[in-house]
Amino acid sequence: MLVKAYAAAVQGIDATIVTIEVNSSRGIKFFLVGLPDSAVKESHERIMSALLVNGYRFPSRQIIVNMAPADIRKEGSAYDLPLAIGILASAGEVAEEKLSKYLIMGELSLDGSLQPIKGALPIAISARAQGFEGFILPKQNAREAAVVNNLNVYGVENIKEVIEFFNNERELQPTIVNTREEFYQHQENFPYDFEDVKGQESVKRALEVAAAGGHNLIMIGAPGSGKSMMAKRLPSILPPLSLGESLETTKIHSVAGKLSKNDSLIAIRPFRSPHHTISQVAMVGGGSNPQPGEISLAHNGLLFLDELPEFNRSVLEVLRQPLEDRHISISRAKYSLDYPASFMLVASMNPCPCGYYNHPTKACVCNPGQVHRYLNRISGPLLDRIDIQIEIVPVPFEKMSEQAKSESSASIRERVIKARKIQEQRFANHPGIYCNAQMESQLLHQYAQPDEKGLALLRSAMSRLNLSARAYDRILKVSRTIADLEGSSSILPHHLAEAISYRNLDRENWGG
Description:
CATH topology of the largest domain: Rossmann fold
Mean pLDDT: 90
CATH class of the largest domain: Alpha Beta
Number of helices: 22
Distance between the termini: 80 Å
CATH architecture of the largest domain: 3-Layer(aba) Sandwich
Number of strands: 18
Low-confidence stretches: none
Radius of gyration: 28 Å
């Protein structure tokens, strides 16, 4: 008897429907074809044990299972449940009338209970697009998949529930999630606030400009000057995610298995802070079982690289292309994937090996050659892609001992959101561009052209600092953002002057 059940394979951040064809006939052998990996092949033993514990028997017949399309590699243990249901249906122990209406996924334990899967959200989106009535999956993933409307999502705990459902012996209750209510309810949940930061007004201003325009930023300062502390507070002043951005971000984290059972939609922008020992594959994604890397997990959010010179140089160099293109294409012998990677890069570093170069009170013990070598761990092309380079000096005792709170993140965020709305209107006719940091040369000539005084100032700075053409573009982008924060339609000389001041590492006295 030939029956068909339906599952899905995740490729990149999208899912492809997999048809599980099961044919049972006289005999005793078991065949599983359709490019399954080792975890899928091992499902036979898990299915046998799960059925036995729950009072069912694995059919004593010859069974041939084909997972179509056969040219896509099927990976992972999430096919256990659809394989088990298909095998039972082919033996007549499960009614096949409703099988074509439901997509099924789930990993089986030996006792028949279900373990969570990866990629529940993109699978649910694909199930709705293909016209399935419902999606049956482990209860731990039900809230994640239930954000997809017009699809009944059933979270189950045991294979017995699924068998009884298809045999019309049990009713399953769909999981209901009020997507919009939950999304807007959690948009203000920030663990850190700028009101706790004493002093550092110039750095806070630089962070506000970076948030308003989506600019990459690096902070250079002595140990303990507050670089990491302020980086952790940066998400609290970024504009809120839109529902579309939230869905795209949640898909990536779903594929990577980073969502907990209580998560539905990610409501605040991601903040990723990998350790400096990270590998290239972990940073950009890929691997034998392809997974999104840190740059994709930071999509629509922040990637914070603390102690930037300590990272392997080859790891830093792979960031250059994603910083420009805002996506990463991974091509290997067996697959080719494209992951989104539109993130703000925020980095911090000491100015020298001892950490006290240019310190106002402590003497640096490094010689000029050591400082040069330390700074040269970061390549010029990568630094060129960082719009804002700001120096941090330690906070004096008088500032630290002040009792009054600083300006809160909420008030800074209001100005950032106002500037972003100006940018949204500006780029309304330019799809794929949402902030000043994404402008290309053609848009710079259109929206970021300074007047004669500004050009003279910029010409002088370019000559004195020996800036590259890319640095020139970065200065114009940052000055456009500063003008937006002031509500100015044109770029004035003082906007350019502030933008030029954010090129600290281009100064002659650095490492001199």
